[in-house]
Amino acid sequence: MRARRLLALAVVPALVLGLLGPAQAADERHKKAQIDRAIHSIKGDLDETSADLRRAGAALDRAEAKLPGARARVAKVHGQLVAAEERDRILGAKLDAAKAEVKDAQAQIDTTLASIASSQQLIGRIARSSYQSGGMGELAVVLQSQSPDEFATRLVLVQNALRSEGNVLGGLAEARADLAAQRATLVAKRKVLSGMKKEQEALVQRIQGLQAQALDAQHAVESLISERESAVATIAREKQAEEARYAQMRAESARLGRVLARRAAAARRAAARRHASYSGGGGSGVLSYPVQAPITSPYGMRVHPVTGIYKLHDGTDFGVGCGTPVHAAASGTVIQTALTVGYGNQLVIDHGGMRGVGVATSYNHLERFSVGYGAHVNRGEVIGYSGGGEGMYGAGYSTGCHLHFMVYVNGGTTNPMGWL
Fold it and tell me: Which end of the chain has fewer CB within 10 Å, C or N?
């Protein structure tokens, strides 16, 4: 599971670096470098995995890595949308209030205009009456009194009429002043109302944009979930096939081991009959490196990073490109040059006795052979060329160029590094 988690890290979804701040972008690049190293460290574990299973594992980890970010985006956009809708609700209430205030201000102006019109009509009648009497109408009324009491009464009436006329004129002036103030208030309220309408229009557009973003984000999550489910189904289907392929490789290795064990036993018997030590063609007893390249996957038990199967990796993988010359690790006789199901083009050399045991080496996933069955080869001689890779002839169960190098001791596989 630890290797599986490393693979998950290897495909962590990259949030677009251009959207991040400089410090955050630098941190993302540092994380990517760590992930690249993790990818390199487990790449060898996948070199002998079926392409479908490998792709399914990568798809699963991509989906699992991206899901948290995608769900966080859904939550973020949803929060922004809720906030925008609440702001729209509040602004809508304020807009209704502003519209009511504008309507009230207009009603006040209409009332003031009606009052001014009424006052102007009254003043017009007074003016016409004064004009018709030559401006002496009020005085004539007083002078035509027949008694002192009538004179006093008429004088009071005239004075009251003059005061009323003055009040009308004063009220008209106040109404006109009120009208100017009311019109200024109306202009201000209409300006506020216009600003609110523009803000609400912009807010409506933002809400529509957020709704589209929320829909896209939700679709992204649903798509990732679908990808994950599809990958899980593929892995479940391929896991059984992977186990069958591994069983075939073990069977091939076991068959070859029996052949080598019989050859080693025969060599020991022949040496005993000759009363000679069992040394064979092993020379110094130390194997040479078949290629000069870094080790991408060592010999030993390991957990498959996708299927979780615990199995033996029966050789050492060297990371070389296809077409690289492969050299004999020691002198000996070629006892197999065949296309096998699991190991692809496989060449096996029997080196005879080394350190008192029978030793053979196997070179797998070759692109082609340069020596034939039964040939005697010398240490360091080019015996073939490395291969591997999806769809390539002779690759066997290999999805990338590399050399799978094996060492057999008395018919059983062992760690090549103890002999190199």
Answer: N
